[in-house]
Amino acid sequence: MARIVGGLATSHIPAIGGAIAKGLQQEPYWKPFFDGFKPAREWLAREKPDVVVVFYNDHGLNFFLDKMPTFAVGAAAEYRNDDEGWGIPTLPPFKGVPELSWAIIDHLIAKDFDIVTCQEMLVDHAFTVPLRLFWPDGDAPPAVPVCINTVQFPLPSAKRCYAMGKAVGEAIAAWDKDLKVVTIGSGGLSHQLEGQRAGFINKPFDLKFLETMVDEPEWATQFSILELVEMTGTQGVELINWLAARAASQGPMRKVCSNYHIPISNTAAATLVLEAA
Amino acid sequence: MSASHEIFGTTPFDGTVAMRGYAINKMCFSFNSAQNREKFRGDEEAYMRAYGLNENQAEAIRKRDVLGLLDAGGNVYYLAKFAGILGLDVQDLGAAQTGMTKEAFKARLVAQNKQTEKL
After folding, report:
1. Whole-model pTM over 0.90
2. Options 1.10.1760.20, 1.10.700.10, 1.25.40.10, 3.30.70.1890; which CATH number does B15-87 get?
3. Residue A89 above 90 pLDDT?
4. Fewest Cβ atoms nearer than 10 Å: which of A21, A86, A144, A233?
5. Are B44 and B62 within 8 A, CB to CB?
6. How far apart are CA B44 and CA B59, in angstroms?
7. Domain boundaries in chain B?
8. CB contact under 8 A, B119 and A208
9. Structural domain range at position A108
10. Residue of A82, A86, A223 to mutate, testing the B interface (most B Cβ within 10 Å of its Cβ)
11. In angstroms, what is the C-alpha Rg of chain B?
């Protein structure tokens, strides 16, 4: 049976992709962020996961308002990115794991999560940036993308995202393969791009959230989406991806490393690696 | 905390806004394609007409008025592709929306480090 050996999470600011492309990781602006990945990469080099499931949000590359799924699961043999309108570098395709995709899809539907399934989907920076950060040599394991709507309200509640992630974890645990799996939650932490409140950051909330991800992961599910928007910003609400990724592991978890840095771009940037205890 | 209360400077992009902004967001979604970006650059007015933008939306595009674009129903994720055409980053947008210079906006972000650590 497959095992989830770790729960990972990181911010996915598009500018990170540009910094990687230009080799700016050791520049003073970027260093405090990129240095946070050293212990994460050491852990990954030791654990060597075979498969990764990425919980992320599309920013208007694959999905438009004509058809906006709340939850969508990729079921493709490979996933490509695109320039997203601002000339983001086009990367080699990411390998998929259709067999696990369908195991997840079957289980989610059986558990009353009426998801959309995608045999073709473009993946944006929220999918590619975390994979590039955790595997800078471009050798990320094959992946299953799980997309959560953060574009058009109503968004799924934190509680619902947590429950969905838990069900994905059940599907992984029941998958009849002797493979190691890690989950990744993409996005956050607090930031707001639009409106007169642009630039909003909430450090005490973020630090509390990071702390609770380890052994009190349901803490943030007490809040409504609008409460989370108020406390973390319109984009800080991306922490619902972290909750889903964390919920896939229901056993005790131990912190391998974490990092928190203000600001990268307009964002309080954070990274977290948890391992199954 | 009430779920219906107002949040300063924030308009959740709900169904009402999504309907109001459909045309402008559809146009901005088209900018995922480099070819469409070129077409827009070539003749902005014709491109806006083809996507059926109303006068409010067209005027906000002409003026590069970020708060006006949001008022007209623009969604930040699609508008970001328009900002990309203009070569603006999210600090430019933040500055424009808060009435600050870009330098002041960036300094304010850095100053957030001074926030208390305890919730």
Report:
1. yes
2. 1.10.700.10
3. no
4. A21
5. yes
6. 11
7. 15-87, 89-119
8. yes
9. 3-276
10. A86
11. 16
